[in-house]
Amino acid sequence: MLDWAWELGVRHVTLYSFSTENFGRDKEELDALFRLFKRKFIDVTSDERVHRNRIRVQMLGDRSLLPEDLLATVTAAEEATREYDRYFINVALAYGGRNEIVHAARSILAEVKAGALEPAAIDAATVESHLNRGLHIPPVDLIIRTGNECRTSNFLPWLANGHESAVYFCAPYWPVFRKIDLLRAVRVYDQRMRLKEQMQRNAAGGAR
What we know:
8 helices; single chain; alpha/beta; Undecaprenyl pyrophosphate synthetase
């Protein structure tokens, strides 16, 4: 899927791999998933495509919830690709949109308490700057939801909903997601952008 995205010129891809709610699963299932994540992050450091294409790998989520060995592997993959800036793969791990906003609020309050920030100066840009600090994650243009689920599941609410991203719901489950499914999703995004541009032109015409 990443190869298809790069063919289309998509530079930023965020994969929602494990939510904060998923910690309620059975221990055996959690252990198996954590082993899988660990193996995949280890693969990043040795995958020549990552280094040849200068792909930066980043994790977004609550790091305090991860086992120490998995967190160490994630950190190693991030360090190995920290200087890359051509493509970005963001892995949402131990992630929840509401949890993300709560952490941002705590960070802002700490700055206010320390006297580094005036409450009256807090605006949307302030909140956005405190989300996933240190990571390069732009506003979301398109969300793809597989498995015939018509919900976005608490995924990047500030960067997606706040910026009115397009959403594509499709029936195939993730393991059988095809290139044609990606192209259909991109078409939905393109149609939305064309409609948005038309509305802006109409509004500008009315203003004259």
